[in-house]
Amino acid sequence: MQKYDEMYTMLPFDGSDVRDHYKAYAQWLAQQPAQTMAARAAEAEMIFRRVGITFAVYGEKDANGAGTERLIPFDLIPRIIPGAEWTRMQAGLVQRVTALNRFIADIYHDQDILRAGIVPRDLIANNAQYRPEMEGVDVPRDIYAHIAGIDIVRAPNARGEGEYFVLEDNLRVPSGVSYMLENRKMMMRLFPDLFTRHAVQPVAHYPDMLLDTLRASAPARAASDSATVVVLTPGMYNSAYFEHAFLAQQMGVELVEGPDLVVKDKVVYMRTTRGLQRVDVIYRRVDDDFLDPLVFRPNSTLGCAGLMDAYRAGNVTICNAVGTGIADDKSVYPYVPEMIRFYLGEEPILSNVPTWLCRKQDDLKYVLAHLHELVVKEVHGAGGYGMLIGPAATRTEIEDFRRALLANPAGYIAQPTLSLSSCPTMVDAGIAPRHIDLRPFVLSGETVRMAAGGLTRVALKDGSLVVNSSQGGGTKDTWVLNEQAQGQPSPELVQELGGMVQSMGGNW
Fold it and tell me: Which residues are 154's β-sheet partners?
């Protein structure tokens, strides 16, 4: 199987054949003593632990029976993307997310794409992610996925060149952006000199962009510059609670739980020490099923009774919208290129990974015959769970999946086992290549925009293709270079570095 490394043109790497956009960094890295890098890695772990940058691991208990929390391992060697590559990727992301928003609006209104026969009607009607409660509900600007996390992988094509592919669309409650921001802050703390040598595009403005996006989605009655925004969290035991609190703090808005909200006369209010305060926008980090016990799960205490009535009346905006899961379902994913053609009249800039839909008889037959070489995923799976990686699976695991596929073929898709690109990574044995992916965070408000780069996730186990933190993956800082700056830091990056230095008087 062909391989592609982000930093080197040949593997195994020996310090030669460095790609042009990595040359300045490679020269710097070669001058760093191993013990210095090890000390910086230990310092990063100590700071992350002190600040509390952890995630909860569902299903794991400590010696006292309490849920366990882990640090997401942070790697010191950045993933670097040339500016020209990012420009094309960004255009593809804008195109894709625009089409996905058009698709969600269409599905809950006229359903033109179903009548045209491009997407099978039964794929939507029988889908657990389809919410009939959203039929005919108009939302501000027709935007449903205000925050999208699009998973991008690079793999060698037939010519041996690295090509970007979209692996998944995450449109419900995508997480991970706090690690993107904290990784940059950590790199600036540990290696400030690197940011004076490289024209790295900044990311610290993301919380401001997010707040602007949320306020732009406010109901018409609320002025967008003064709309009251809250972050709705399931609470401190949620795996991404650190991120919920972090983003609320960075945006300067309230972090609330279900009991903090109340609905009166189809209007949502937040309980405060000064009485009830009207809420215009809810950035929810709670799944659909738990948002309103009067509509979804009656035993849920994570949401607010009457919330859907207020939402349907147009008195509050929920970001992301209820029902967005229909567009990131893995069985709908193969149709996104056709959505782009149908809604935008354009050819997709970013390609999908080839995908077999096991609900189709011919596709199922092929998958069953090639389980040992494919990746098979549950259509509603997440976090690296419910997945078979054929080349790494045991015979027993393959046969278990065979039975599951035969019992419920519509619940699975399959894809070829891509040789994900690798990036040099610090491991116990030194510096070695490890597979990576990228999750840019795309914001849809008055316009579609994003911070340059995103969260690079790395599979720390040798040979592993699973980058998810719940499966032992780590993260890296992602640098998008501004070649026009000719190696000089941008004013925005200088401001970002200055802000980091000032913040070191606090938690840092």
Answer: 164
Cα–Cα distance measured from residue 290 to residue 348, given in angstroms and rounded to the nearest whole number: 35
Single pTM value for the model: 0.91
Q: Are 412 and 364 in contact (CB under 8 A)?
A: no
Q: Which of the four CATH numbers 3.60.15.10, 1.10.10.10, 3.30.1490.270, 3.40.710.10 does domain 354-417 have?
A: 3.30.1490.270
pLDDT tens track for 275-304: 999 999 999 999 999 999 999 999 999 999
pLDDT of residue 66: 45
Q: Quick check: helix, strand or coil at residue 412?
A: strand
- Residue count (the chain): 508
State percent of the chain over pLDDT 90. Answer: 76
**Long-range Cβ contacts of 191-195 (<8 Å, 24+ apart):** 191/40, 191/76, 192/497, 192/501, 194/25, 194/28, 195/489, 195/493, 195/497
Neighbours of 340 (CB within 10 A): 23
Lowest mean pLDDT among 34-38, 61-65, 498-502: 61-65
Asked if residues 437 and 186 have their Cβ atoms less than 8 Å apart, the reply is: no
121 closest CA partner among 353, 326, 287:
326
